[in-house]
Design brief:
By secondary structure, this protein is an alpha/beta fold. Helices cover 21% and strands 32% of the residues.
C-alpha cells in the first residue's frame, strides 16, 4: 500500500548525550500548514542506502503536535544506517530533508485523562515527552484535569538521561507532575533514586493503596465489552522488551487489568 510521503526539513540538531550518542532533532514539513498527530504516535522515515535499497525506520515523536513541526530523539547505532544517516552532518546538514510518512500507532493517552504512571527507559522517553507537552502545554490550558501524573524514567548513567532538565522544570511548575529518574549504575555523587523502574513503579502503587486511592479499582465486570472498559488509573510503558514485560508483570501482580497497561516496546 502506497503511503503519503512528506519532505521534512531539518531545522535543528543537538547531541543531548555524548556518551550514549543520542541526538535531538527538530523537523518542519514546509508543504503542510499543520501536521496533526496524537502525542505518543510515531513516524516512519524512508531513505535509500548506499546500495540503493530503500530503508524504513519507525521513530516515536518526541513532541506534542505543534503546527507543521515535530521532534525526534534517536540513539546513534554502530553500523546502523538510519541513525548514522540522521546524526552525521555531512549526510544530513541543517536544511536537508528526509522523507517520512505517518503518523502511525496507538500508543496514546486514554481519555478522559486519569491518574497515570508513565514508565520509560532510554529513548523510550520520547513519547513521554510528547505526553507531558500535551498535558502541560507551556502556552495553553492544562489538560491534566488535576490528575496525578508520574514519570518514572530509568537509565544506566546520569549522562544518559534525556530531557532531564526539562522534566525537572515541569515538576517544579506543576505540583501534580512527579518526575522520578532512577539510575541502575549510578556513581556515588548521584543523589536521586537507584535501581530499575519496575521497583519504583511498584512503590507508587503500594503508596497509593496505603493512601486509599483506587489503584487498582475493583475487578472488572465481565459483562462489559473490552472496548468499553474505563479505569481510574493507567500505566504507559515504553522501552526495551525486557523492561516492558517486567513492569507489566509487576502491575498484573497488583491486580491491574491488562487494558490498564498501555505499552510500546522495541528490541
Amino acid at each position: 500500500m502506497d503511503r503519503q510521503l512528506y519532505a521534512a526539513r531539518l531545522e535543528r540538531k543537538e547531541c543531548i548525550s555524548e556518551q550514549a550518542q543520542c541526538y535531538h532533532f527538530e523537523f518542519v514539513i514546509d508543504e503542510l500548514e499543520s501536521f496533526s498527530y496524537a502525542a505518543g504516535q510515531f513516524v516512519s522515515a524512508v531513505a535509500d542506502d548506499a546500495k540503493g535499497k530503500q530503508q524504513t525506520r519507525a521513530y516515536s515523536l518526541a513532541s506534542a503536535a505543534n503546527g507543521n513541526r515535530f521532534d525526534l530523539c534517536v540513539n546513534r547505532v554502530e553500523e546502523g544506517f538510519f541513525s548514522n544517516h540522521l546524526a552525521d552532518l555531512p549526510d544530513l546538514p541543517i536544511g536537508a530533508k528526509i522523507n517520512v510518512h505517518g503518523p502511525h500507532g496507538h500508543f496514546i493517552l486514554r481519555e478522559p485523562i486519569t491518574d497515570s504512571i508513565l514508565v520509560a527507559t532510554g529513548t523510550g522517553v520520547a513519547p513521554m515527552r510528547g505526553f507531558t507537552q500535551w498535558l502541560f502545554p507551556a502556552d495553553g490550558p492544562d489538560r491534566s484535569n488535576g490528575k496525578q501524573i508520574w514519570l518514572v524514567y530509568g537509565t544506566r548513567y546520569e549522562t544518559d538521561m534525556y530531557y532531564h532538565e526539562e522534566f525537572e522544570a515541569l515538576a517544579r511548575r506543576k505540583p501534580n507532575f512527579h518526575y522520578l529518574p532512577t539510575l541502575s549504575r549510578a556513581q556515588d555523587s548521584w543523589k536521586g533514586l537507584r535501581g530499575y523502574v519496575q521497583n519504583h513503579v511498584a512503590k507508587i502503587v503500594e503508596r497509593a493503596a496505603r493512601l486509599g486511592l483506587p489503584h487498582p479499582q475493583p475487578a472488572v465486570d465481565p459483562a462489559i465489552p473490552p472496548a468499553e472498559l474505563n479505569f481510574e488509573v493507567y500505566a504507559y510503558i515504553c522501552g526495551l522488551n525486557f523492561m516492558v514485560t517486567s513492569v507489566r508483570e509487576s502491575l498484573a501482580g497488583f491486580g491491574w487489568h491488562r487494558k490498564q497497561i498501555v505499552f510500546e516496546r522495541y528490541d
